[in-house]
Amino acid sequence: xxxxNREPPPPAAGRxxxxxxxxxxxxxxxxxxxxxxxxxxxxxxxxxxxxxxxxKLADKLGVQLAGVVLGPPGEASWHAVAEAFAYxxxxxxxxxxxxxxxxxxxxFTKAMxxxxxxxKPEILLLGATMRGRDLAGSVATTLLTGLTADCTELxxxxxxxxxATRPTFGGSLLCTIYTLNCRPQMATVRPRxxxxxxxxxxPVGRIVELKLSMVEDEIVTKVLGFLPDAxxxxxxxxxxxxxxxxxxxxxxAENLQLVTKLARALGAEYGCSRPLVQKGWMPAERxxxxxxxxxRPKLYIAAGISGAIQHRVGVEGADLIVAxxxxxxxxxxxxxxxxxxxxAIRFLPALTEAFTRRLSPHSRDKLAS
Length: 369
Ligand SMILES: Cc1cc2nc3c(=O)[nH]c(=O)nc-3n(C[C@H](O)[C@H](O)[C@H](O)COP(=O)(O)OP(=O)(O)OC[C@H]3O[C@@H](n4cnc5c(N)ncnc54)[C@H](O)[C@@H]3O)c2cc1C
Hints:
Blueprint: E1 32-36, E2 38-39, E3 42-43, H1 46-61, E4 65-71, H2 75-86, E5 91-96, H3 105-119, E6 123-127, H4 130-143, E7 147-148, E8 153-156, E9 162-168, E10 173-177, E11 185-189, E12 206-209, H5 230-234, E13 242-246, H6 256-266, E14 269-272, H7 274-278, E15 299-303, H8 309-315, E16 320-324, H9 332-335, E17 338-340, H10 344-359, H11 361-368
Parallel strand pairs: 1-4, 1-6, 4-5, 5-12, 6-11, 7-11, 13-14, 13-15, 15-16, 16-17
Antiparallel strand pairs: 2-3, 8-9, 9-10
Helix pairs in contact: 3-4, 6-10
Flavin-adenine dinucleotide binds next to α7, α8 and α10.
């Protein structure tokens, strides 16, 4: 299944030796499906990002794009259905059941695998969120099919196979993985790796409902209550418009306040490179990069970060990258839009002061007059 490195995938003929004929019972698997992740009434935006990617795959294959909503009976699930159409789904499959209120692996796996076995999609995409990862793994193992996790690129080969590309060997290589002889071909993608598509104005399309064939007694996991994670709710790096991050170049934990102060002045989120998490200077939820968060802000300021490939893959979707680094040959200058070769420990306070002055209501009045 492992195919290539940074080279584009070889043509289908190059894989002919590996490819057995698709078993007869998989030949009527068609269409691209996206799991619409619903949590406490909210659709996770990664579902819309995946509908955008799913649209491109479906158009290339000449098939339909479907959303899959699994949720409790009522308004929240139907809101998710409407949102799937607003992001260009052609149809939506829905399983509505009280057992699908709080996420539990067993009823969600049952609902999804029943849908797949009944309606037979050729591609199934899920967000690489906590829930999406949990569900994707159990759906793939139940259906005995292939799953490529944390993809950074999705495409279809001329022969119609899903080419799912993801980093490997610590991020130093990209490999393209195929699920050649099983269906559906499954992939997860982390939030913000794919761009958010435009909403479309179109009428609600076809809706297909399926009943959940499972009862509470068949479920081992019981929900006793819901405690929101106050810590993880605080950092919203993935969807922030402005992100300031610090790296080892800041020298010590005491200098992280230079990053947080600038973030406060700009109303931004703050984050860091991985070594700072490993040293215990920042919590893991603030790590940016391949094994942390992927961000797509309008502005990203990186201070004292070298720009290793594992960091780069998490930030290169930013509209404007400003790098502050003492070493003019640091790799981050290869992909930053603005490079400032200077000492971040001296530069950050000056930048914070300049922004604070410029953004204060008093100075805004002066600038306006
Ligand atoms: C499997 C795997 C997964 C990984 N995942 C991630 C990930 O998700 N995110 C991540 O970030 N890393 C990740 N890494 C680690 C990554 O390879 C790098 O080691 C890491 O990003 C380096 O962090 P850094 O840039 O802060 O430190 P360094 O590489 O030590 O760079 C520090 C930089 O600061 C500059 N500097 C020094 N003093 C100053 C100063 N006073 N002012 C300004 N600049 C200064 C230096 O010139 C240097 O460029 C991963 C590695 C592996 C193997």
